[in-house]
Amino acid sequence: MSRVKLGYNPTLKQATLEQELELCEKYGFDAIELRIEKLKDYFTRNTLADLKSFFEQSTLQPLSLNAIEYVLFSDSVRKEANNRDLAFLCEVGYELGIRDIVIVPSFHKTEYSMEAIKQESIQILTQYANKVKKYNMRLAYEFVGNPNACVNTFEQCYDIVESIGLDNVGISLDFFHFYAMNSSKQALQEADIEKIFLVHINDADFYPPGSLREEEDRLFPGDGAIPIKDYMDILKDKNYQGLVSIELFRKEYEEWDMEEFIKTAKEKTSYYLQE
Ligand code: ZN
């Protein structure tokens, strides 16, 4: 793999964005994703100019923005909030030269058919894509490996993104989500690699498909059930050159010393990015 960027997704509840930025720089990550809730908190103490100046002086690059959520079948209040958040992320992203915004579908209880979900996704993502285009930004649609997520397999997500057919709409491939609903490795092998905008790397507890909880059952790469090497080999064969970013949510990690966590994240992820 020529030069995949090793990234970090700042999910630690016990850390501020300032602390995570500093530690990611210290432990040699290439890139960091920015999360909307952390950004909003950061801006209560700092300005966008401060953030820009941090990155101008750092080896760490900002590489994506997470996330606009519950985008499908939402009521007018949620729609407005999402539109405001999208405008906010465009402003930040444009200033920092970030290309991708992660978009997450909604959840339901067997209410919407595959076709209804596809049509709604096409409508919303096309609308968002037109908005972010003038900021030179792209949308990375992240399927969620939960039975109640409207879009929950790679192949369903890929079908939607292909149907949209826009250069600035692709996929955020999260290994946990891929594994958790048994997405098809063959579908990944056959996919157009240009449609995979970014990768979230992580591991998962040993539970059957459909029962993993995305906020609780993630583990450091190498500690769980996910055949990470197989997934990375597929990406390597396809000459994937984007971001591979560690994204972990797990209650016990919130008890960890933040420096120890980031150091461990770097070590355990680097193992899978060796040539
Ligand atoms: Zn993710």
What's the β-strand tally?
Answer: 10
Instruction: Give the integer mean of the pLDDT values.
Output: 96
Shape: globular
> Beta-strand percentage?
15-25%
Gyration radius (Cα, Å) is 18 Å
Number of helices: 10
Spatial strand sequence of the major β-sheet: 1-2-3-4-5-6-7-10
What ligands can be seen in this structure?
zinc ion
Low-pLDDT residue intervals, each spanning 5 or more residues = none
The biggest beta sheet, please? 8 strands, parallel, barrel
Q: Which structural category do the helix and sheet elements fall into?
A: alpha/beta
Q: Percent range for helical residues? A: 40-55%
Series of H and E elements:
EHEHHEHEHEHEHHEEEHEH
Folded structure, characterized:
With 275 residues, the protein is of the alpha/beta class. Helix content is 41%, strand content 16%. The protein has an eight-stranded parallel barrel with strand order 1-2-3-4-5-6-7-10, surrounded by six helices. It has a two-stranded antiparallel ribbon with strand order 8-9. Helix 5 (114-133) crosses helix 6. The longest helix has 21 residues, at 76-96. The site of zinc ion has 4 residues, from loops.
Features:
275 residues, 10 helices, 41% helix, globular
Summarize the structure.
This protein is an alpha/beta fold. It is 41% helix and 16% strand. Helix 4 (76-96) links the parallel strand 3 and strand 4 (100-103).
What's the arrangement of secondary structure elements?
Blueprint: E1 5-8, H1 17-26, E2 31-35, H2 36-42, H3 48-56, E3 61-68, H4 76-96, E4 100-103, H5 114-133, E5 138-141, H6 154-164, E6 169-174, H7 175-180, H8 185-190, E7 196-201, E8 203-204, E9 218-219, H9 228-237, E10 243-246, H10 258-270
Parallel strand pairs: 1-2, 1-10, 2-3, 3-4, 4-5, 5-6, 6-7, 7-10
Antiparallel strand pairs: 8-9
Helix pairs in contact: 5-6
Bound molecules: zinc ion (ZN).
Residues 142, 174, 200, 247 line the site of zinc ion (ZN).
